[in-house]
């Protein structure tokens, strides 16, 4: 869960993600995203594991991990067609430029590196109800700001 | 295969409009480690003595280091290295934001800029590609407008733009280069150098990333750094930003006031970090990869000083536009900071130039005849803000102010010398050299770019801060004698303080992270672990020290070749007179020469000239820097 009210736009989550997943530091190969814009907008964008992508995958490469409930990519089956990226409502799926396969947050098997290393606690791994409540809040606030 | 570094240098010639990409030599790079170390070698070898810093022959190096753009918590920095038009010395201006990391992600460790374009241009570097593009339509625009225009034009909100504003175009000698809207490579006039080359901006973006040699080991070293920084001794930096220093420094009588005439400001509580946080802060903002987020986004919502959201002000800026000018109105200070950011001005030199002119006005050296009828009274925030605007455009009296304190004093004659607070032409920053720390006094005298508290380190960490920063095991004197002591111990200690800071500079790291003790900061030993696992080179702390010493010596050689020597390592006269009031009343600098002697000796430099001896240079493998004389 990403909390823009605490984010300072440092991008450390992206660096930790790419270091954990690919052994390099490369925000463009990260499965968590920080949108930093002016004036003073810093928003961590993370996959909410909604599963819409599962339904559109033509090869059945996307499935839910039973332990973490995260949607994960099966490397044996993914052909990199990009259908999942088309349907993702918040744009957190991408086709990795080197593996040519879908890449998304798999919650690092239950201990996400981004959350463990966020210096401001702006990305947190929370229990479902608490996370849902915060998501409601953020969704509502995002729309309220637009109306102001 | 390169790890940690991109492995490439980009050379852009603005005169011919051509560029070329050069592969870096691993051994040569490792010798200097990177960033300012390697830039010092480049500029020493490629820029002969006596070149006018504003002539086409002058070169500029944009430099990143091993940790730039990595998850090393201090990796948001890049440095701009050049010969300063303000001082005529070596200069390096560090800035944070996203520019350095994105330059490296774009595939380059260094950019060398040469020549002069016929018409305004900007350089666009993205994913290994380079374009020199027309910037006629950007000339005359301020930093915000330029940045916004380029984002639209290049259709990429993720670009990082380092640009000059009107001040640089107009040749203000302390114009800054501003990246990411509010992060300044501030000191020494790099903005004027860009302006002289008809270079408006450098724009970068990249998706290349940085390869890590031993990812698991690197992650462990970074985790250690993250843990250690939880015990950081200067806790107010993250929570209040650097402005937190205003109240503290005032209570100790080390807050420069009225152009350094005093060191205590009665109304400091009106301009403190607490007030800034409570009334004007929008949010905290971090440089790329930074875990502290000392940056503040502030705005003044309404009134005559209304200002859109903008980065800053920092401690230096608050003192410069506050106590230094006698101003107690935080809104005027925020407005002045905003104008410096959008016009591209160094807030320190701008504030000091205004403070100097206010003192000269008080003493009758400047009159209303000179100032178009505008009285330059202490504490007049409105006049101060007007002056900032006029400096950027070099209007009226500000044609005069735009040259900096040293040149102004020379024109006003000996009576103004007393008020000219600079070393080698660089206006002093907001740290009081008499009372804060005597090592700092020494640093002001010898710093390669002039009166500077940050290059390569904030000297006060050692005696004022009582922090060894991991240097005890190299032989740094410990414990420090009391802050006001001026014995040779101070000179010896400065060798270690300087080299420790220089390690950050050659790695492209932010200096803030190396203030502490083992377990509470990134020591040279921890940097060695980080750099080793990142690059795959087995670098020890000793090797970092040696590379730092090379870099530090080369800068001294650069200045020596330009004619600087011991004679120029001196302090403004004011500091030999006692502080008149406040908690630090009565303190002055008496024995600078004692500290200088000890420092030169500790460095292995010639005592008479203060410059590296041929033996020392041979020992460091810098034979090419031995002068023919």
TrEMBL record, chain B:
Where is the Aldehyde ferredoxin oxidoreductase N-terminal domain positioned along the sequence?
5-208
Q: Which GO terms describe its molecular function?
A: 4 iron, 4 sulfur cluster binding; electron transfer activity; metal ion binding; oxidoreductase activity, acting on the aldehyde or oxo group of donors, iron-sulfur protein as acceptor
Q: Which domain of life is it from?
A: Bacteria
Give the protein's cofactors: [4Fe-4S] cluster; tungstopterin
Q: According to the UniProt entry, where is the signal peptide? A: none
SUPFAM superfamilies linked to this entry: Aldehyde ferredoxin oxidoreductase, C-terminal domains, Aldehyde ferredoxin oxidoreductase, N-terminal domain
Specify whether Isomerase is a keyword of the entry. no
User: Which is one Pfam family of this protein?
Assistant: AFOR_N
Keywords from the UniProt entry: 4Fe-4S, Iron, Iron-sulfur, Metal-binding, Oxidoreductase
UniProt xrefs under InterPro entries:
Ald_Fedxn_OxRdtase_dom2 (IPR013984), Ald_Fedxn_OxRdtase_dom3 (IPR013985), Ald_Fedxn_OxRdtase_N (IPR013983), Ald_Fedxn_OxRdtase_N_sf (IPR036503), OxRdtase_Ald_Fedxn_C (IPR001203), Tungsten_al_ferr_oxy-like_C (IPR036021), W-dependent_AOR (IPR051919)
Q: Which family does it belong to?
A: Belongs to the AOR/FOR family.
User: What is the protein's given name?
Assistant: Aldehyde ferredoxin oxidoreductase
Q: Which organism is it from?
A: Carboxydothermus pertinax
């Amino acid at each position: 869960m990403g909390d823009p009210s605490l984010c300072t736009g440092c991008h450390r989550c992206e660096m930790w993600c790419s270091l954990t997943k690919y052994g390099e530091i490369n925000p463009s190969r990260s499965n968590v995203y920080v949108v930093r814009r002016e004036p003073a907008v810093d928003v961590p964008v993370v996959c909410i594991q909604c599963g819409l992508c599962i339904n559109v995958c033509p090869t059945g490469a996307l499935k839910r991990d039973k332990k973490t409930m995260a949607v994960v990519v099966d490397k044996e089956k993914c052909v990199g067609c990009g259908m999942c990226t088309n349907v993702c409502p918040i744009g957190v799926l991408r086709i990795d430029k080197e593996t040519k396969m879908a890449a998304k947050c798999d919650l690092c098997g239950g201990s996400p590196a981004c959350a463990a290393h966020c210096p401001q606690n702006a990305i947190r791994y929370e229990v479902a109800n608490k996370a849902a409540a915060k998501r409601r809040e953020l969704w509502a606030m995002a729309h309220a700001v637009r109306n102001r | 295969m390169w790890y940690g570094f991109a492995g490439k240098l980009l050379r852009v010639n603005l005169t011919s409009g051509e560029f070329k990409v050069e592969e870096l030599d691993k051994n040569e790079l490792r010798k200097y480690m990177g960033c300012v170390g390697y830039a010092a070698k480049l500029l020493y070898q490629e820029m002969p003595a006596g070149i006018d810093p504003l002539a086409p022959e002058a070169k500029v190096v944009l430099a990143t280091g091993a940790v730039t753009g990595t998850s090393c918590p201090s990796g948001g920095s890049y440095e701009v290295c050049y010969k300063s038009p303000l001082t005529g010395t070596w200069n390096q201006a560090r800035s944070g934001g996203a520019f350095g990391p994105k330059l490296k992600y774009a595939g380059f460790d260094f950019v060398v800029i040469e020549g002069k374009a016929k018409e305004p241009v900007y350089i666009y570097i993205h994913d290994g590609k380079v374009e020199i593009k027309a910037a006629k339509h950007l000339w005359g625009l301020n930093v915000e407008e330029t940045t916004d225009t380029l984002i639209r034009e290049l259709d990429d909100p993720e670009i990082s733009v380092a640009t000059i504003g009107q001040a640089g175009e107009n040749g203000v000698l302390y114009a800054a280069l501003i990246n990411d809207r509010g992060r300044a490579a501030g000191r020494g006039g790099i903005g004027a150098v860009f302006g002289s080359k008809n270079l408006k901006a450098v724009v970068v973006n990249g998706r290349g990333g940085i390869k890590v040699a031993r990812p698991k080991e690197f992650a462990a070293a970074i985790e250690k750094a993250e843990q250690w920084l939880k015990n950081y001794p200067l806790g107010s930096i993250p929570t209040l930003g650097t402005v937190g220093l205003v109240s503290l420094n005032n209570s100790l009588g080390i807050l420069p006031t009225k152009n350094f005439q005093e060191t205590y400001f009665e109304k400091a509580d009106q301009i403190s970090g607490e007030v800034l946080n409570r009334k004007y802060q929008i949010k905290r903002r971090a440089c790329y990869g930074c875990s502290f987020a000392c940056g503040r986004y502030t705005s003044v919502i309404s009134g005559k000083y209304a200002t859109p959201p903008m980065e800053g002000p920092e401690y230096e800026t608050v003192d410069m536009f506050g106590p230094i000018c006698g101003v107690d109105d935080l809104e005027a200070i925020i407005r002045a900071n905003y104008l410096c950011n959008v016009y591209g001005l160094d807030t320190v030199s701008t504030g000091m130039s205004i403070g100097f002119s206010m003192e000269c006005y008080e003493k009758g050296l400047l009159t209303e005849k000179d100032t178009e009828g505008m009285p330059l009274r202490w504490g007049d925030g409105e006049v101060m803000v007007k002056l900032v605007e006029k400096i950027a455009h070099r209007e009226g009296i500000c044609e005069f102010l735009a040259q900096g304190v040293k040149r102004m004093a020379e024109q006003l004659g000996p009576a103004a010398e007393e008020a000219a607070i600079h070393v080698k032409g660089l206006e002093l920053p907001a740290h009081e050299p008499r009372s804060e720390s005597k090592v700092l006094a020494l640093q002001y005298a010898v710093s390669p770019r002039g009166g500077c508290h940050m290059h390569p380190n904030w000297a006060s960490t050692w005696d004022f801060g009582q922090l060894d920063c991991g240097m005890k095991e190299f032989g740094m004197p410990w414990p420090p004698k009391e802050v006001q002591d001026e014995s040779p111990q101070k000179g010896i200690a400065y060798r270690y303080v300087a080299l420790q800071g220089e390690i950050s500079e050659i790695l492209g790291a932010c200096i803030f992270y190396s203030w502490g003790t083992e377990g509470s900061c990134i020591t040279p030993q921890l940097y060695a672990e980080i750099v080793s696992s990142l690059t795959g080179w087995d670098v020890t702390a000793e090797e970092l020290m040696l590379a730092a010493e090379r870099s530090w010596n080369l800068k001294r050689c650069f200045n020596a070749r330009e004619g600087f020597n011991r004679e120029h390592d001196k302090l403004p006269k004011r500091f030999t007179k006692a502080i008149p009031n406040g908690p630090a009343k009565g303190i002055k600098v008496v024995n600078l020469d004692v500290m200088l002697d000890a420092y030169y000796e500790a460095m292995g430099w010639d005592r008479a000239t203060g410059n590296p001896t041929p033996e020392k240079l041979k020992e460091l493998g810098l034979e090419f820097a031995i002068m023919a004389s």
